[in-house]
Each structure stands twice: as C-alpha cells, then as structure tokens.
Specification:
The chain is mainly alpha-helical. The chain is 55% helix and 11% strand. The chain has helices spanning 25-44, 55-66, 72-79, 83-95, 117-138, 143-154; strands at 5-8, 11-14, 99-103, 111-115. The strands form 2 sheets. It has a two-stranded antiparallel sheet with strand order 1-2. It has a two-stranded antiparallel ribbon with strand order 3-4. Helix 2 crosses helix 5.
Length: 158
C-alpha cells in the first residue's frame, strides 16, 4: 500500500477517507500478493550479487545508468538519502571501479556521476537478470492478464 492509501475496516480508503473507486478489499489482497510475487522474483534474480554489491549500491548503479546527467545531490534525492551518505556510497562504487566522477561540460565546478565500463556492464547484467525473472513470472499469466498488468503498471509514477 502506498503512503496515500490506508486500510481501515474492510474497505481500502484514500487518506481523505473516501473509498478508492473500483477497489475492493479482495482486489487489494490480490494486488498485494501479486506484487509480493513480482518483488520476490525481482530480488531473487540478483541474489548472487548480495555479498559483492549491496542493494543501495545496486539502486544507485541503475539510477545513474538511466540518467543523462546526475550529480550527488540529484542521486541523494532519488535515493531518499542524505548527500553525505550518498557521497560515501559513491566513494565505494568508485573504489570498486564502477563509478567515475567527471566535471560537467557547462560548469567545471559541478561534478557529474558516470558509470565506468564495468559499471555499465554490471547495470546491464542486473537489468537483464531482472527482465528474465519478470518474463518467467509473466509466462504464468494469461495474455489478458499480462496486458492488464502492463497497462496498470504503466500508470505508476516513479
């Protein structure tokens, strides 16, 4: 359940107390179970990285890899972490050879984060593993179920 939704009594409600349109308690239970299955498959896909690359570093790699230009402040906002914690995380990624800090073209004072070739390969591997896990989960759905899931997930905002 997201931060704008609470479950009071039997009906899923918005924070303002109104019922979510078209959402029954059974729908919410099914959505939660389905999301749990997806997240479990997603995490299992990259479990072997667990000891080498902690989850926060994986998130940072994927965020940096998807961004055109990103500095530590921007990354800290996206991670929901303090700039100092994010800077330390970037230090660890740089020490592992996965991240480089480079001056911005527009301003030499601004430092941007870029994945090294090794960081790009690792991020691509992670995305591939997760995509393969997702495909395995989706194989169990009917074509209509896959279409409905894709349509619903496309409405979510990061």
């Amino acid at each position: 359940m997201d931060q704008d939704t609470v479950r009071l009594g039997a009906a899923p409600l918005n924070r303002d107390g109104s019922q979510l349109p078209g959402m029954t308690p059974a729908d919410l239970d099914r959505a939660e179970a389905g999301l749990s299955a997806l997240l479990e498959a997603w995490q299992r896909a990259i479990e072997e990285l667990g000891a080498m690359v902690p989850p926060a570093q994986v998130r940072a790699l994927l965020i940096i890899g998807a961004a055109d230009e990103l500095n530590v402040t921007g990354l800290s906002r996206l991670l929901g972490a303090s700039p100092s914690a994010t800077s330390r995380l970037c230090d660890r990624l740089a020490a592992a050879g996965l991240l480089a800090r480079v001056p911005a073209a527009a301003s030499r004072r601004e430092i941007l984060l870029q994945l090294t070739e090794s960081g790009q390969r690792l991020a691509a591997w992670i995305r591939g593993q997760r995509r393969a896990a997702l495909l395995r989960v989706l194989e169990d759905l009917s074509p209509e179920g896959r279409s409905a899931l894709a349509r619903g997930l496309s409405e979510l905002r990061p």
